[in-house]
Amino acid sequence: MSAVPIERIIKAAVDRGASDLHIKAGDLFRARIDGKLVPLTKQRLTPDQTKAIALKLLPSERARASLESMLDYDCSWGLPGVGRFQFSILRQRSSVMIVMRVIPFAVPSIEQLGLPDQVRSLADLNLGLVLVAGVVGSGKSSTIAAMLHHMNQSHRRHVVTVEDPIEFLHRDINCSITQREVGIDTETVRAGVRAALRQDPDVIVVGDVHDGDTLETALRATETGRLVIGAVHALDGPAAIGQAAAMVPPDLRDMTRNRLAECLTAVVSQQLVPRRDGAGRVAVVELLMATPQVREVIRGENLAALADLVAKGQRHGMQSFQVHAAELLKAGIIAPETAKSFGGRR
């Protein structure tokens, strides 16, 4: 390990399609490739080696000086010609560990990600609230980046993003895209979204709708006539709606459900699964569209009924995970056992 520069190992991992890198004392250098954590080196790292790598990644002399007392630290780092990385430095068994998320230089397109045509139509909207749901590592940021890339190619808008941290870098083409990073360009997500309302935005992107304050600000932004796109950590559309309602105190939930019912346009949910040919992963996508029936359910408390509306709502542009998995199977993109993991066609 000591004879091979860390940059070369990182480049090799990225060339193999790694999404995450794990650097831990006492272990091999590992990378998550196609969803699996695989070793890249044969020699185990020493505490001094992981410490040296952390010092190389830290962005300032002040940060490097505080490494010995550092418990949790998040930042970003770039390797010229390779990519950008979101990384976390943490302590485990009193030694330094680093986990890095790979952020490619190139912004993906909707076509490259294999997303349904409805996602493009959502990016063409002038107003409404679009939530992009999925668990950690399910590609939510890539989908939002692809939607912004489509806007940038097709519309003349001012797009303001509030991210923690900034992942994909967008250059201005037809749109003016203002990207603000929490902790550097704005104090909090809520503060950044509230400030965005005074910055003549057409579109506001909320990188993580994770609490009641952020949700309330996103709803307010939608109510002023903007298109708001927000990421939420939830498995599917019904779970995303339920989670949003649970973000606020009980005495505010009825009002929040009513506002959400009025503002919501769609929930795009996704899960990443292996491609049949072994060339990476592909998103299986659920689409929940805010029809009058869906809005009525959101106002009530029987959110379980949303799953049935998704399953029966193809004429309204809706799509279940099962239906999309069946389409990907028919196209030969995923294997039968992968499609079966989503259950029968609904």
Quick recap:
By secondary structure, the protein is of the alpha/beta class. Helix content is 36%, strand content 27%.
How confident is the prediction overall: mean pLDDT?
93
Taking the alpha carbons of the first and last residues, their distance comes to 51 Å
Number of helices: 14
Which oligomeric state applies? single chain
Our count of domains comes out at 2
Q: Outline the biggest β-sheet.
A: 7 strands, mixed
- Return the CATH class of the largest domain: Alpha Beta
Describe the protein in words.
- It is a single chain.
- This protein has 346 residues and is an alpha/beta fold.
- The protein is built from 14 helices and 13 strands.
- A 7-stranded mixed sheet has the order 9-8-10-11-7-12-13, sandwiched between helices.
- The termini are far apart.
